[in-house]
Amino acid sequence: MTVSNDRANTEQGQLPLNRRQLLKGFSGLAFMVCAGEALAVDSLSHQAELPSAALTSPWVHIDSSGTITIYNPVAEMGQGSATALPLIVAEELDADWDQVVIEYSPIDASVYGHASIAGHMMMLTVGSYAVRSYFTKLRFAGAMIRQQLLYNAARHWEVAADELTSRNSVVYHRKTQRSISYGDIARFARLEKNLPPISEVDLKPVNEFTLIGKTDVLRRDIPSKVNGSAVYAIDIELPNLHYCVIQRAPVHGNRPQSFNKSDIEAMPGVTAVVTLDHGVGIVGSSYWAVVKARRALKITWTDDALANTFHSSTIFDEYDKVAGTSSAPIKPVHHSGNVEEAQQSAAKNLIADYRTDFVYHAQMEPLNSVVRIAPDKKSVELWAGTQFASGLRDAVAKQMQLPVDNVHLYPQFLGGGFGRRSWHDFSLEAVSLAQAANVPVKLIWSREDDLQNGAYRPATLQRMQGSLDHQGKITRWQHRTIGDNPMLLAGGAKIPHYDVANQQIDFSVVPSGLRTKHWRAVAYGPNKFAIESFVDELALAASQNSYQYRRQLLGNDPRALAVLDAAVAMSPWKKGAVNGRALGLAFAENVGSLTAMVVEISLEETASSIRVHRVWCALDAGVVVQRENAITQTEGAIIQGLGSTLMESITVEKGAVEQSNFHNYSVMKMAQVPEIHVQLLESGLPPGGIGEAALPITAPAVGNAFAQLTGKRLRQLPFLPARVKTVLAS
After folding, report:
1. What are the residue boundaries of the Aldehyde oxidase/xanthine dehydrogenase a/b hammerhead domain, all occurrences included (predicted)?
2. Is 315-359+456-729 the same fold as 236-302+367-444?
């Protein structure tokens, strides 16, 4: 993917949702540029580089050579969205994909953003939201440019536009078989106004797609990542670039009280030593110089942080008290029917607690940013891998007290995000150090920095309660989540596809003082672990097969049943596992998609460790833009889900994280990855999310398989060998 890092950003109109809005976005644009004429401002500050004839919109630029540049507004962190979104435009444009060049769009949320929950526009790549938030908008954008091409060709040939068709960047006249390329049209094109409005019915039917969903359309970012030419922010080099590191407080919230500043300033290669609210920054001529200087720091920290008294080993005792009291502040998620009456009239009542540890993002590229402030201090340039481009630009402008237009952000590839890079802390730190040292800087977080000063998926306790009637049907469902950070607790707690009349779902917040953050699938991971494990426990109490039990719960939902049935059909579920192994099943909705999964496990009893051998996953994500990439994304979600299921755990003692690197924070290794089979179901519905869809059901599927194998239930993630041993001995 070609990424331009030297474009400025100017204002444009609103994102073109319809013809009128698109024309508003085109206001001031030039469709016909003849030799000697000036090209009108199109918000892409590379006009001087354009050929003398071009067709331009906020999303697409077609030059006279036939090259089609499509602007990508989202972060590319390995998920493939930077190919998928331009592909959507190209589909409706009838573009020759081989002639398409992809560039990052300007940072202008009013044009290139999507609507947040609050309604304002953001350039934010999170929540498996890229394709599903832009799909319809970009189809309209492509269709409207195609309409302009057809009407310009019709005017040129003096024929009716409805006599024309297009394919592979060429317009054809049906009657005479005349043809003209998009590049040739760009030589004389002008904005055609008063055209018939384009509506949904004018967009291509799914069965006529030639690019979307085709396996031979490959991701554009992969070749450069394979040959090593891909550029990440950490690769950026500038004249007079200095390096910097920060020694942060071991406990979040504490501050530097005193330190040996003069000693550090005297060390070779050190340019500046900067006291920050949360630590001490060191700027120097080389990375090794600042690392050595940091090792020589002797800091006395304040000890008044909330997290100072936090111990992860005892937090569940506190959570248990909150779960069992009616006096704790409770925030409702969903309520229906009468759970009290259902409990009183039940044939059986069950209660179970499920726990999840803190989890670290473990993105492979260290957090980093490069910052260069202009000599007059009136503008700044920033190179960063960010999931929230518009938010970062605004945050830098606020910190430096600059107009937003004076902040020039150049997004780069991200070496993994998983929610961590939607925060701006590491980039704002770099800005602070560049301001203090008055030199261009590159800030790098080491793995130890990130692990011990990161932001984690919060630990949770899930209290599940259910009632059964005499036929084993669920008549009451109660689910309370206890944890830190209200933004990270409620997602996935609802059970919209299960037929249960009486429900009470809520959560309560217990502050820890630690930094917590969205982690892949956010609250769906902990919540679906509890939900899908508890469904199996209820099925056992009802003396029913867990697959058939779920079919009854999904009885009024044919789409969900199709996904569940597909996962079972592709696995040996009905045949049964071989000796020494067991199968587990789970189902969930997430990010607009439905997934079901069967896993096959065995138990290495001497080590008390679980081995996952095979995984079968069925996914209905609606229209899939890139099929091969969707399968790859699902495999990645399963692998990361297995890591958080079997081994990933952050522990905290007196507010300080005990893990420091991958020697004591384990992630899945290649040799541990099971055989994975993914089936994509064709529902034809609008796209759902893919990157996070399968992750939440990985843990309950493994836990349910363990229960089938041993008759014992694991109720705390991860399923560490010590916990397995304890459960087996119970």
Report:
1. 227-305
2. yes
Domains of the chain, by residue range, sit at 19-226, 236-302+367-444, 315-359+456-729
pLDDT digits (tens, 9 = 90+) for 446-478: 999 999 999 999 999 999 999 999 999 999 999
Q: In the CATH hierarchy, which fold is given to the domain comprising 19-226?
A: Aldehyde Oxidoreductase; domain 4 (3.30.365)
Length of the chain counted residue by residue? 730
Candidate CATH numbers 3.30.365.10, 1.10.630.10, 3.40.50.1360, 3.30.565.10; the one for domain 315-359+456-729? 3.30.365.10
Query: Strand 164-167 vs strand 170-173: parallel, antiparallel, or unpaired?
Result: antiparallel
**Domain 236-302+367-444, CATH class in plain words:** alpha beta
Inter-residue contact 617 to 596 (CB < 8 Å): yes
Residue 511, judged by CB atoms within 10 A of its CB (0-12, 13-18, 19+), counts as: exposed
Distances (CA, A) of 103 to 110, 230, 469: 18, 14, 59
- How close are the terminal C-alpha atoms of the chain, in Å? 55
DSSP 277-292: SSEEEEEESSHHHHHH
Q: What is the CA radius of gyration of the chain?
A: 28
Residue 662: how many other CB atoms lie within 10 Å: 12
Convert 48-75 to b/e letters by CB count within 10 Å (16 or more is b). Answer: eebeebbbbbbbbbbbbebbbbbbbbbb
pLDDT tops 50 at residue 12:
no
- Mean pLDDT score of the chain, rounded to an integer? 92
Nearest 10 degrees: CA dihedral of 602, 608, 611, 612?
80
Distance CA 326, CA 35 (A): 77
Q: How confident is the model at residue 1 (pLDDT cuts 50, 70, 90)?
A: low
Mean pLDDT of 172-189: 97
Q: CA angle, 232 as apex, 397 and 84 as ends, to 5°?
A: 90
**Structural contact between residues 134 and 73, judged by C-beta atoms closer than 8 angstroms:** yes
pLDDT, residue 260, reads 99
Of the candidates 414, 539, 557, which has an alpha carbon nearest to the alpha carbon of residue 496?
557
Q: pTM of the prediction? A: 0.92
Confidence (pLDDT) at 40: 25
Per residue, the 3-state secondary structure of 702-730, as one string, reads HHHHHHHHHCCCCCEECCCHHHHHHHHHC
Query: Tokens 């044939």 — which residue?
Result: 347
